[in-house]
Amino acid sequence: MEKTTVLEFLQQNLQSVEQVLTQLKVLSEPKGLYEPVSYILDSKGKRLRPQLTLAAADAFSGDRDVAVQVGTAMEVFHIFTLVHDDIMDKAETRRGRTTIHTKWDEATAILVGDYLMGKAGEMLLALPDQQLRSGLERFSLTVRELCEGQIRDMEFETSSNVSMDAYLQMIDQKTSALIKTSLILGGLTGNADKESLQHLDHIGFHMGRAFQIQDDLLDLTADSDDWGKPVGGDLMSGKKAYLLLEALRVETTTGNSYFHRVAENGGLASTEVDKAKHLLDEMGVLSSTQNAVRHHSNEALRLAKLLPESLGRLTIESLIEKMAVRSH
Predict the structure, then answer these.
(1) N or C: which end of the chain has fewer CB within 10 A?
(2) Average pLDDT over residues 221-227
């Protein structure tokens, strides 16, 4: 029998996850709830989190059917966070499509998000009985961390003094937390012991940081056709993300004040985005941000190579490498 390649494994995983997502769209009444639920579940994403769950499950000889359910639960939970994030951010588009609260209304979007979070928890019941308590505890911890991270992110909007350490703590809770949990739940479907679960946690920590810092970089450097939202949106809104915070740090050593004014004014005009990008390049901010992505990607890759030899390990390594060079 021919060995399955990483690409084939990823394609099989994607097909399995999409099949489960399709099965979640069987309810139709009340239409006011299940029509927007079906709409948001139809949104095509990278499905990174279920891919990580299935890869970790493979690395630790997990039950694939269980891992598909658990991994899809992580995708459903991720979608829930996006629905509520879009409400709070007043975003009109997501992944190139109209957001739920824009297409319907905020009350509907809140209920859709609540439904999806509940459905994600329900799907975790697929875990083996002996691992179910650990899985649900981990899920509850993730909910708490995400809420803490989101409130920190919101507080940054009105704070005039956000440190890079505070920002990194926030992304650890908003981004790394779910990636770590996706890996850990995959391990729980198999024979991962306490030390192995901690190892998966460390991999997820570095993957999360690399993913979010790269996301911040792409907000300014991505191709607008693929990005699905306005390029430079973070700077236009004055969001205290990695690029702006790093620029403020550099300016304290150079005496310049362009980005301090951006922060004080709550953003810049769309016509200023190209100039800001050029300045960030000249200041070395774009390269230092790329270096941060590279550092955390390399750490995640180093740790992944210590996992049991398996197709799952190779898949995690491949996902880390692709994540570090993604363009959207």
Answers:
(1) N
(2) 72
Query: What CATH number is given to the structural domain containing 258?
Result: 1.10.600.10
CA angle centred on 284, ends 279 and 287, rounded to 5°: 120
Per-residue tokens: 274: 């190209």
The reply to whether 278 falls in a domain is yes
Domain that holds residue 163: 6-325
Q: Is residue 262 part of a domain?
A: yes
Residues 92 and 94: their CA atoms lie apart, in Å, by: 7
Amino acid at 168: L
- Per residue in 255-266, pLDDT tens? 889 999 999 999
Whole-prediction pTM: 0.94
Helices 64-89, 106-123: inter-axial angle, 10-degree rounding:
160
* Mean pLDDT calculated for residue range 16-41: 95
Backbone angles phi, psi at 98, to 5 degrees: -65, 135
- Between the alpha carbon of residue 325 and those of residues 7, 214, 244, 318, the distances in Å are 17, 9, 21, 11
